[in-house]
Amino acid sequence: MNNDNGRLRIAIQKSGRLSDSSQDLFKRCGLKVSLADRKLLSHVGNMPIDLMLVRSSDIPGLVMDGVCDLGIVGDNTLEEHALQRQLTGETSAYNKVCSLKFGGCRLSIALPEEVDYQGVQSLDGLRLATTYPRLLNRFGEQHGIRFETCKLNGSVEVAPRVGLADGICDLVSTGATLEANGLKEVEVIYTSKAALISGEKPLSGEKAKTFDKLLPRMQGVLKAKESKYIMLHAPKGKLAEVITLMPGSETPTVLPLAGRDDRVAVHMVSTETFFWETMEQLKDLGCNSILVLPIEKMMG
Ligand code: ATP
C-alpha cells in the first residue's frame, strides 16, 4: 500500500482492548475522525492523517516495514514481534515515541492451583501454552530453565484443563480469568502498556510537520488525564501547612477573597492522586469549598 501521499498514516487496533482508548486519544487531540463504518483506512477530516484499523498483532510489522508511519500497540505485542523478526532476520527496528497511559497488563506464568510451586526451577521441563513464545523463551534463557512452548492465539487459559499444557503464560490484568480457570499466577515475566511507535526512518516534509503538531497534543492529553485542578478556601494563617499537604504542589496560585481578610483562595494543578484523606486533613486545617476537577487539555 503506497504511503507517500503526505498524509501521516497511523495504525491502531480495529477492535479489542486498545481500540476505544486509542480512538479516544485522537479525538481528544482534536482529530475529526469517523470510524463508524469501520473501513481499513479512515481519513481524518481536519488534519492530513489517516487511521488504519487493523489487528493489534499486525501493527508492529506495518510500522517496521514502513507501511504505516506510527502505531499504537502494547509493549508485549511489539517486543514479541521484534524478537520473532530478529530470529528470521527481517527488519525489526522501530522507535518508541512514548508510553501511553492505558492498556496496562502483565505477562505471567500461571499453573493449576493444586501445583506446589517452589520457585522458577519448578518450571523446568514443563509444557506451557502461550501467545508469546519468544518472550517466554527469553525468560527461560535468562533463568537457565527450559520448557516446551505450545503456541495458541486465543483461549490460552483453558489449555491445562484440556490436557494441552501443564501451565500457561498469558496476559493478566485483574487475575479474575486465571482464578475462574483454576490457575494461580506464579511468575510475572513482563509488564506492558500501550505505546506510540514510529518506524526507524525519520519522518520528513508534510508528515514531519503533522507529527510535530500531533505529538504535543497527545502529550497534553495524557498529562491532563493524570492531572487535577484543585481549588479551595484556606485560612491565611495556615497557608504554609495547606500547601505542604497538597500533592505535587507546583507553585499554587493564592488569590484574595472578596470581603475576607482572614481567608484566601488556593488554586493548583496536581499531577498526583488526590486522596479523600488529604481532603479530610485540609478540612481539619480549616479549609472549605475544596474542589478537585478533571482537566481536559494542557499545554506548556
Ligand atoms: P488482536 O487485535 O491482534 O486480536 P489481541 O488478541 O492481543 O490482538 P486484545 O485482547 O484486545 O487483542 O488485547 C490487546 C492488547 O491489550 C494486548 O496485547 C495487551 O497489550 C493489552 N491488554 C491489557 N489488558 C489485557 C488483558 N487483561 N488481557 C489481554 N490483553 C490486555
UniProtKB/TrEMBL annotation:
<dbReference type="Pfam" id="PF08029">
    <property type="entry name" value="HisG_C"/>
</dbReference>
<dbReference type="InterPro" id="IPR013115">
    <property type="entry name" value="HisG_C"/>
</dbReference>
<keyword id="KW-0328">Glycosyltransferase</keyword>
<keyword id="KW-0028">Amino-acid biosynthesis</keyword>
<keyword id="KW-0067">ATP-binding</keyword>
<keyword id="KW-0963">Cytoplasm</keyword>
<dbReference type="GO" id="GO:0005737">
    <property type="term" value="C:cytoplasm"/>
</dbReference>
<comment type="similarity">
    <text>Belongs to the ATP phosphoribosyltransferase family. Long subfamily.</text>
</comment>
<dbReference type="InterPro" id="IPR020621">
    <property type="entry name" value="ATP-PRT_HisG_long"/>
</dbReference>
<keyword id="KW-0460">Magnesium</keyword>
<dbReference type="GO" id="GO:0000105">
    <property type="term" value="P:L-histidine biosynthetic process"/>
</dbReference>
<dbReference type="Pfam" id="PF01634">
    <property type="entry name" value="HisG"/>
</dbReference>
<dbReference type="InterPro" id="IPR018198">
    <property type="entry name" value="ATP_PRibTrfase_CS"/>
</dbReference>
<keyword id="KW-0547">Nucleotide-binding</keyword>
<dbReference type="InterPro" id="IPR011322">
    <property type="entry name" value="N-reg_PII-like_a/b"/>
</dbReference>
<keyword id="KW-0368">Histidine biosynthesis</keyword>
<keyword id="KW-0479">Metal-binding</keyword>
<dbReference type="InterPro" id="IPR015867">
    <property type="entry name" value="N-reg_PII/ATP_PRibTrfase_C"/>
</dbReference>
<feature type="domain" description="Histidine biosynthesis HisG C-terminal">
    <location>
        <begin position="224"/>
        <end position="297"/>
    </location>
</feature>
<comment type="pathway">
    <text>Amino-acid biosynthesis; L-histidine biosynthesis; L-histidine from 5-phospho-alpha-D-ribose 1-diphosphate: step 1/9.</text>
</comment>
<dbReference type="InterPro" id="IPR013820">
    <property type="entry name" value="ATP_PRibTrfase_cat"/>
</dbReference>
<feature type="domain" description="ATP phosphoribosyltransferase catalytic">
    <location>
        <begin position="55"/>
        <end position="219"/>
    </location>
</feature>
<protein>
    <recommendedName>
        <fullName>ATP phosphoribosyltransferase</fullName>
        <ecNumber>2.4.2.17</ecNumber>
    </recommendedName>
</protein>
<dbReference type="InterPro" id="IPR001348">
    <property type="entry name" value="ATP_PRibTrfase_HisG"/>
</dbReference>
<comment type="function">
    <text>Catalyzes the condensation of ATP and 5-phosphoribose 1-diphosphate to form N'-(5'-phosphoribosyl)-ATP (PR-ATP). Has a crucial role in the pathway because the rate of histidine biosynthesis seems to be controlled primarily by regulation of HisG enzymatic activity.</text>
</comment>
<dbReference type="GO" id="GO:0003879">
    <property type="term" value="F:ATP phosphoribosyltransferase activity"/>
</dbReference>
<dbReference type="GO" id="GO:0000287">
    <property type="term" value="F:magnesium ion binding"/>
</dbReference>
<keyword id="KW-0808">Transferase</keyword>
<dbReference type="GO" id="GO:0005524">
    <property type="term" value="F:ATP binding"/>
</dbReference>
